[in-house]
């Protein structure tokens, strides 16, 4: 692509620079408007500066990616309401055999859940569980939070729905869900194992603490925020209402007469006493309700439990159906939206509460980013830089792979991974296709792998890292601050090792 005129080149670069600053530093003092507004500002400036026309700006927005993002977020919301993440949390402490075992469990659960529910969602839901477990076992939270964030990023590489940049790559490349999974899965598995082993080695002394197999952590998780205990309506609701409204007229019950049931059987003496001591029609009505209430509440409670189980089963079946459809190669965006709509219908309620869980700010951020990146591409700067680098980044050579990976790592941490994919994706694929058509798919998969794993390099490398950091700080009475340097100390060796694994295992 030829370079644009100097005016458009300068103005387009300014617009992109504003977008980049606000994306990387959303609370910059001179303009603290955040990432979402920053992306809209960058896109709008591209139009105002006439780098793009209004029609070109609309065309730059990829609706298929937005649809896939929306659908997966809605499905994740329904999975959360069906207690899917609660069960994942319980797996963390089930028959735990020590701190090192716990690290491995966190890595495994984080990686698997991220592959199917996105890394951001997994970190959002699991951070508090992980922090509570560490605190209750008197273990340092740092290695466990690092395990959660880093494994979420690595695990999300396995599928097109694992993270936003994979959605972009799958849509632009045309690689099917099954091809994507089989192409990257071996690297994901080995990368997750190496990441867990590195964590254990680096924090060996901190993790060498003996804990009971069943300890207070499991009880804490079960009792607070995971599966809170509820009193049975059959035994509590009517008694509470009667005590608040006062005694019934002429009602005095003592000893055995105070219980409607004795040893699981109906206490006839209690019922006869109540009937004999009621002298008015109003009293009979109140007593009738009092006597029948426990039975009605019990039946209602049983019915609600069955409805809950049926609803959860429907949610899991729809999600399994969605995954099977994706593996069969059906349109990913259409499949995700269809699954989301099916869950809304099956829920048979107003869908607003679940739709409110959708991160519309993320969708708007993507809209602005698509326009901004397209405008920056129009300046010709990315093409010129790629032409300088291309001779040294041949995908069929070891040295070329190393240079390519280094460029992706640096760009992903400077401009974030999704803009990196948008800037480099088509150029890498076109360059690889000149060597061989088989290398084109490999180029896309390597871009996916390196741009995602690059998120583990520093705390600012991915949204999942920031989510873990922010969530951990805000847990009441248990908050922990994961610092930039503590993350970097582990992130650099982990990123380099895991990236190298992918470059070796991902084949054309």
UniProtKB/TrEMBL annotation:
This is Transporter arsB isoform X1. The chain crosses the membrane at residues 6-25, 37-54, 60-81, 184-206, 315-346, 398-415, 446-468, 488-506. It holds the Pfam family CitMHS. The gene is LOC18605597. One of its GO terms (biological process) is transmembrane transport. One of its GO terms (cellular component) is plasma membrane. The lineage of its organism: Eukaryota, Viridiplantae, Streptophyta, Embryophyta, Tracheophyta. Keywords: Cell membrane, Membrane, Transmembrane, Transmembrane helix, Transport. It is found in: Cell membrane.
């Amino acid at each position: 692509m030829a370079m644009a005129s100097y005016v458009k080149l300068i103005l387009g670069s300014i617009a992109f620079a504003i977008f980049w600053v606000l994306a990387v530093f959303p609370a910059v003092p001179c303009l603290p408007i955040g990432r979402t507004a920053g992306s809209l500002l960058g896109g709008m400036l591209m139009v105002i500066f006439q780098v793009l026309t209004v029609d070109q700006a609309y065309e730059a927005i990829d609706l298929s990616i937005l649809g896939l993002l929306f659908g997966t977020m809605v499905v994740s919301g329904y999975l959360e309401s069906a207690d899917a993440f609660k069960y994942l949390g319980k797996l963390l402490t089930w028959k735990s055999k020590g701190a090192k075992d716990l690290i491995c469990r966190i890595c495994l659960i984080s990686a698997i859940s991220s592959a199917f529910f996105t890394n951001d969602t997994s970190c959002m839901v699991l951070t508090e569980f992980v922090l509570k477990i560490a605190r209750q076992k008197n273990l340092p939270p740092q290695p466990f939070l690092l395990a959660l964030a880093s494994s979420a990023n690595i695990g999300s590489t396995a599928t097109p729905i694992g993270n936003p940049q994979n959605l972009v790559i799958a849509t632009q490349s045309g690689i099917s869900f099954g091809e994507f999974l089989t192409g990257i899965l071996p690297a994901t598995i080995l990368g997750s194992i190496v990441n867990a082993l590195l964590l254990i080695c680096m924090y060996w002394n901190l993790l060498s603490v003996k804990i009971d197999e069943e300890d207070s952590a499991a009880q804490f998780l079960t009792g607070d925020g995971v599966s809170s205990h509820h009193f049975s309506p059959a035994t509590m609701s009517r008694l509470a209402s009667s005590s608040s409204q006062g005694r019934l007229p002429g009602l005095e019950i003592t000893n055995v007469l105070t219980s409607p049931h004795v040893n699981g059987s109906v206490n006839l003496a209690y019922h006869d006493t109540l009937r004999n001591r009621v002298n008015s029609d109003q009293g009979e009505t109140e007593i009738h309700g009092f006597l029948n209430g426990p039975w009605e509440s019990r039946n209602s409670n049983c019915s609600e439990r069955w409805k809950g189980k049926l609803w959860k089963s429907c949610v899991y079946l729809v999600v399994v159906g969605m995954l099977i459809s994706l593996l069969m190669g059906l349109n990913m965006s259409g499949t995700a939206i269809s699954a989301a709509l099916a869950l809304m219908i099956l829920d048979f309620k107003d869908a607003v509460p679940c739709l409110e869980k959708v991160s519309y700010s993320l969708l708007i951020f993507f809209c602005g980013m698509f326009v901004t990146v397209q405008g920056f591409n129009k300046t010709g700067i990315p093409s010129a830089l790629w032409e300088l680098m291309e001779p040294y980044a041949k995908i069929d050579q070891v040295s070329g792979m190393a240079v390519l990976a280094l460029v992706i790592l640096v760009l992903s941490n400077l401009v974030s991974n999704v803009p990196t994919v948008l800037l480099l994706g088509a150029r890498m694929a076109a360059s690889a296709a000149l060597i061989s058509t088989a290398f084109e798919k490999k180029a896309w998969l390597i871009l996916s792998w390196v741009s995602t794993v690059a998120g583990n390099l520093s705390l600012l490398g991915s949204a999942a890292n920031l989510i873990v950091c922010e969530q951990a700080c805000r847990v009441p009475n248990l908050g922990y601050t994961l610092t930039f340097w503590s993350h970097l100390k582990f992130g650099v060796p982990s990123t380099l090792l895991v990236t190298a694994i992918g470059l070796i295992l991902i084949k054309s």
